[in-house]
Amino acid sequence: MSHPDRAGIEIRSIREDEFAAWVRAVNTGFLLTPTPAPETVAHRRRGTDLARTQAAFDEGRMVGNFRSFTQRLTAVGGAEVRADAITNVGVAPTHRRRGILSRMMAADLAAARERGETVATLIAAEYPIYGRYGFGPAASVARWEIQVPRTGLDPRWSRPEGGGRLDLVDAAEIRAHGPGLHERLRSFRHGVVDRDERWWQQATGQSNPPDKPWKEPFHVLYRSARGEVEGYAAYTAEDTWHENKQPLETATVVDLIAVTPVAERALWQYLCSVDWITRVRTGFRAPDDLLPDFLPDVRAARITTLADWLWIRLLDVPGALASRTYAASGALTLEVTDASGLGGAGRYRLTADGSGAECVRTREAAELTVELGDLASLWTGEVSAARLLALGRVREERAGAAAAADSLFRTERRAWCPDVF
Ligand SMILES: CC(=O)SCCNC(=O)CCNC(=O)[C@H](O)C(C)(C)COP(=O)(O)OP(=O)(O)OC[C@H]1O[C@@H](n2cnc3c(N)ncnc32)[C@H](O)[C@@H]1OP(=O)(O)O
């Protein structure tokens, strides 16, 4: 509960009878239909913990909204960290730029720290919003569009090499196999966030709000030669034909996850082989996705989106640094600055070896000074210290410290967050 500020804006969590007004505020900020249908409100209510909502009130009118929930995020090396996932953020255009978001953010981050969450996460609507609160861009997203006739793939292809098989299945089978598959992905790919029961229900048409009705996709499941489920793709198709009766259909991937490169290759090859499909849109991938290099002519895949995606704020700096693995054994003393003033500044000694890492506060001389948001980008391997040095964003207190940082923080793959939340 917060008291009104001098301008009379009160910020607090909402009551049950205020939920419909809160959804209205969310929809207004996101420029959706202002008054949601009662069924939409009821659907949203089932996925909302009122204690984790915030609203701003001016003379009793709701002028700001905010929500968070606990999420599990995979760190480099596969460990799971608890995250405070932030979503549904908005301030009425009539009340913007008066510090309402800043107040809601400060309250949420303090509560998350209190709960012992290691990081905070969000998908930013616009790039300039969250850096000021200590967040850094920590996983980028890439989308490709594949011109199938230009890929150079064999048009006679009919099944995966190596004994694996593909089957078209229904949503019920995905409901059965998808969660286990995703858990396997989550155990090794950093940047992936957990998908709860509700996520799978919505993805498989079991529980969908009237404002976002389910469009049943096609589902294809890959099993290895040993019969293990190793990947699946969900895709929709647009029915377009050229005037001279040539099919020009576009397949849009809704979700494609695979836990082996063989499964991944088979699924993309399949998508590029379906009769009538001349264009494939890939959905949200990592920038280093294997896809383009599965194609004999890489240029058949054109990047249509390359942008920041998952933003992370380290709440427990030593906890976060100790939770990931490192590319080498070594030690580094970091001076972490926090321009937001919301917590995290300090000097930390990181020591890593093959068995893990530890990180403690220290009084030893710092080797590298880094701002908290940039440390989040280093934490996932999203950026190199050498690049931050060139940009003037880290300072070497000891010559060569940026290179030393890179030998530790370097990751084999880029972070990937396939989900929107
Ligand atoms: C995780 C998510 O849900 S992302 C969705 C975010 N929501 C939206 O984009 C919906 C439309 N926009 C809005 O609702 C609001 O403008 C918000 C939530 C982005 C910002 O809310 P406000 O209450 O205006 O922010 P607040 O006044 O606390 O701003 C603090 C500072 O951030 C800056 N800022 C806020 N939003 C932006 C922006 N979009 N671009 C650039 N700077 C911004 C302000 O100028 C201010 O700077 P200052 O401290 O130097 O004066």
Would you give an account of this structure?
By secondary structure, the chain is of the alpha+beta class. The chain has three domains: 9-134, 3-Layer(aba) Sandwich (Aminopeptidase), CATH 3.40.630.30; 142-306, 3-Layer(aba) Sandwich (Aminopeptidase), CATH 3.40.630; 316-409, Nonspecific Lipid-transfer Protein, Chain A (2-Layer Sandwich). It has eleven helices and 17 strands. The strands form two sheets. Strands 1-2-3-4-5-12-6-11-10-9-8-7 form a twelve-stranded mixed β-sheet, sandwiched between helices. It is globular and about 65 Å long. Bound molecules: acetyl coenzyme *A. Residues 29, 86-91, 96-102, 122-126, 128-129, 132 line the site of acetyl coenzyme *A.
Summary keywords:
Acetyltransferase_Eis, 31% strand, GNAT_dom, globular, GNAT family N-acetyltransferase, Aminopeptidase, binds acetyl coenzyme *A, acyltransferase, 421 residues, alpha+beta, 3 domains, single chain, Acetyltransf_17
Structural class: alpha+beta
What's the SSE pattern?
EHHEEEHEEEHHEEEHEHEHEEEEHHEH
Helix content: 10-25%
Count of the domains: 3
In terms of per-residue confidence, which ranges show pLDDT below 50 for 5 or more consecutive residues? none
CATH architecture of the largest domain, by name, is 3-Layer(aba) Sandwich
CATH topology of the largest domain: Aminopeptidase
Q: Number of helical segments?
A: 11
Q: Can you identify the CATH superfamily of the largest domain?
A: Gcn5-related N-acetyltransferase (GNAT)
Mean pLDDT score:
96
Q: Bin the strand percentage.
A: 25-35%
Ligands: acetyl coenzyme *A
Describe the sheet with the most strands: 12 strands, mixed
Strand order of the largest sheet: 1-2-3-4-5-12-6-11-10-9-8-7
Q: Terminal Cα separation, in Å?
A: 26 Å
Number of strands: 17
Q: For this structure, what is the CATH class of the largest domain?
A: Alpha Beta
